[in-house]
Amino acid sequence: MSRRKQHVPWTTAGTASEQQHSADDVVRETGWVFNNRTGRGLDLAAFVETGDHETLAYLQAFEIADGIERQSLVEIGSGIGRMTASFSQMFARVTACDLDGAFLERCRETVAQFGRPDRLQTCHVDDGRTLLIADSTADLTFSYITLQHCHPGDALALTREAVRVTRPGGHVALNYRTWTASDAVLWPVGKVVRGSFRIPGVGSALARHRATARLGWQANRLDPATVLREVADQLHDVRLVHSPKRSAFGVEGVIESTYVGVHRSHWWLVATVR
Ligand SMILES: C[S@@+](CC[C@H](N)C(=O)[O-])C[C@H]1O[C@@H](n2cnc3c(N)ncnc32)[C@H](O)[C@@H]1O
């Protein structure tokens, strides 16, 4: 199991998910890790339904939904398959990638129950930054609420990997989080809390606790210019999609658009690979 600080809340939740008897119990115990919903009334069906509402909405908003029934998708940070089940219904092939092997096992179960398991492969991102996937093989590489939780260097490495595994003419749709006023507090507190996860005895309990885990996973904030410096020369038709509630980033040579489904602190890089 990885002991890197940024990985601790995820591997801890993964281990917790392994210990649950049923997939419904997994959602009740660790589902909040993915979509922040809690409650005894939750079950896997309700959890997957939240993903169903988001997948096609994003693809349509980003104008990359045409012909997907013949395409292959790589999803970075699939978790236990909240969105993967729906993607497997829409795409011909899906490769679900995650840092945590136990999540990938649960993802297979979720897709078996609510999606198309015959279309699913999984990819364990053991080092948090490398996809064991051949170059230029995906039509679309997608990532949602994942790159914000990685060490900044890993998030940028995964961005380069997303471009590498996507075929020329294919698309990337990658979600990031940037700075907001609340980060003046959240960011330093998150750093201290992540450090506490390594304290023998109490660390693993803190990483399992909802409030401290949520603080600890505040691992990076990336602005579009920093991300584009890594990959802009390999992309064209670059678009930044953000919330209508925030002002434009103002990056030269890049189209910006808004979509109501984007959180105020988030932004998406949507582009075609050269
Ligand atoms: C908030 S969850 C989002 C899961 C899914 N995208 C969804 O919307 O339900 C973030 C996921 O990213 C995974 N993750 C975190 N860091 C990662 C990394 N460096 N590489 C790959 N996956 C990572 C976690 O294990 C977790 O499953």
Structure write-up:
The protein has 274 residues and is of the alpha/beta class. It contains eleven helices and eight strands. It has helices at 8-19, 23-30, 32-35, 44-61, 84-90, 101-114, 152-165, 183-196, 203-208, 210-216, 224-231; strands at 72-76, 93-98, 120-124, 138-143, 166-177, 235-242, 255-258, 266-273. Strands 3-2-1-4-5-8-6-7 form an eight-stranded mixed β-sheet. Helix 1 packs across helix 6 (101-114) and helix 8 crosses helix 10. The chain is globular, with a radius of gyration of 18 Å. The model has no long low-confidence stretch (mean pLDDT 95). The structure holds S-adenosylmethionine. S-adenosylmethionine (SAM) binds next to helix 3.
Q: Descriptors for this entry?
A:
11 helices; 274 residues; alpha/beta; single chain; binds S-adenosylmethionine
Ranges with pLDDT <50 over ≥5 residues?
A: none
Q: Can you list the strand order of the major beta sheet?
A: 3-2-1-4-5-8-6-7
Largest sheet: 8 strands, mixed
User: What's the overall average pLDDT, rounded?
Assistant: 95
In whole angstroms, the N-to-C terminal distance is 36 Å
The portion of residues assigned to helices is 40-55%
Put simply, the count of helices is 11
What overall geometry do the principal axes of the alpha carbons give? globular
Strand content: 15-25%
